[in-house]
Amino acid sequence: MSIFDSAKRISLGGLTLLIVLLATTAYAQHTGDLGQAPPPPPGPGSLTVQLVGDANPDTNPDALVGISIALYALGPDGTPGLANGETDATGAFTFTGISNDPAIVYLVGARYADIPFGERIAFDAGATTARIEIPVSQPTDVISGVSLSEVRTRVDWMGDRIIVTEILRLESTGDRVIQVPASDAGPSILERTLPANAKDFNAGPTSIGDELAEIDGRVRFFGPLYPGEQRIEYQFSVPVDRKTDAVRFPITLREAAGRVIIVAGTNGIDVSGRGLVPSRELASDTGETLASWARPGLRAGESLEVGLVLPESRFDPTALTIPRTDVWVDLDDTRLDANVDLQFEVAPGAPISGTTAAPLLHITVPDGAELQGVAPEAESMGLIPTEDGGFDVIGPIGPGEHSLAYSYRIASRPDGVALNMRFPREVETLNVLIADTGLALDSDRLHRRRPFRNRTKLSPSRGLQRRHG
């Protein structure tokens, strides 16, 4: 009886690919919980972290002793690493045996007086030692020397709604962190009144860990606000009137703003509002050119009514086809990582868009898998997470060729992993590309292609392909 006969197969009507481990010694070893990041890459480097601030020999000599230090390593390929330490009698800790690769960015954090402080650093080329100082201090609840220099509002059309992402640039001239108690009735550092029909409020990625809350239709920021410039980010949605394809919403802040910028995240959106004039084009994180409008500023309590007119669109799911999909698979003794590149085309004509009830595509992940992320350039397609662990694609999406890349992870078993891959539409050509590290492969619906070398991997890869029909 072969190993395939004894292995358990899973099939739910999709394409099933069974991958079996033949020799665990051929794989990198991972220890601990899969949800925990591995240690930073090893090497000859040492990084000394020195806290500076509140220690006073007379009144508070041990203020900087025993403070937890976290070191987060981010490699050029996105691979994370995590290590921890605790400061000594001098308020310092040295991480040793870490990589001195200048391409690795190290984020160093400390929590002092319940306030997170942090800095980033990279090794100089050829250096094996590095040192960084992190200023820390007791916070103050006195709100003074704070100004709002800019409100930047980005609008993205997503089917039956507009996603509004706002970044507020605050400046603090003081030398201490400002933190006030979070409460409904107490003071806040900043307050923004949301539109009456706003939904789906959430803090943006740069505001994770901030005391930022939506209370009775108002966004309130309680801190921490650090000396210098700081960005506060949040997001909400407003519905689209599909009869007119128009949207109106107000921008109202308790504080005066130095300037207001509106950015059209979806091409073709026309923006209007009192005092708004076309401004220079901006580049998105993915390099896309975006139109913008600006006005000099906004008085405290003044409301700016922003009007949006959406470009022409169509609801035609049949205009979307998937000629090719590539799935890159890596397997070791603890987990399988899959990177999917779904390449699709939209027929000529106006952009296509769906709704939350009728999305253009519904992306699922295999049973037992956990979605790890989506490529940044795909976020403009209007992605909404779903309860099954996947996500819907709402649009709008213009005509032409597009790529939707995402990744997922599955814990492996001693007898292998069964991949039950399901796709939202018929895929004309499916390529499954597997790192050749001693795996036994079994599939009755794929045929093997010749091996090739992947420039991002040390080992050769093997390809399996299935064509429609």
Global structural class: mainly beta
Shape: flat
| CATH top level class name of the largest domain | Mainly Beta
Domains counted in the coordinates: how many? 3
N- and C-termini, Cα separation: 31 Å
Number of helices: 1
Contiguous uncertain segments of 5+ residues: 1-35, 451-469
Biggest β-sheet description: 7 strands, mixed
How helical, in percent, are the residues? Answer: under 10%
Output the strand order for the largest sheet.
12-15-10-9-17-22-19
Proportion of strand residues: over 45%
CA radius of gyration: 26 Å
Name of the CATH architecture of the largest domain? Sandwich
CATH topology of the largest domain: Immunoglobulin-like
How many beta-strand segments? Answer: 35
The average pLDDT is 82
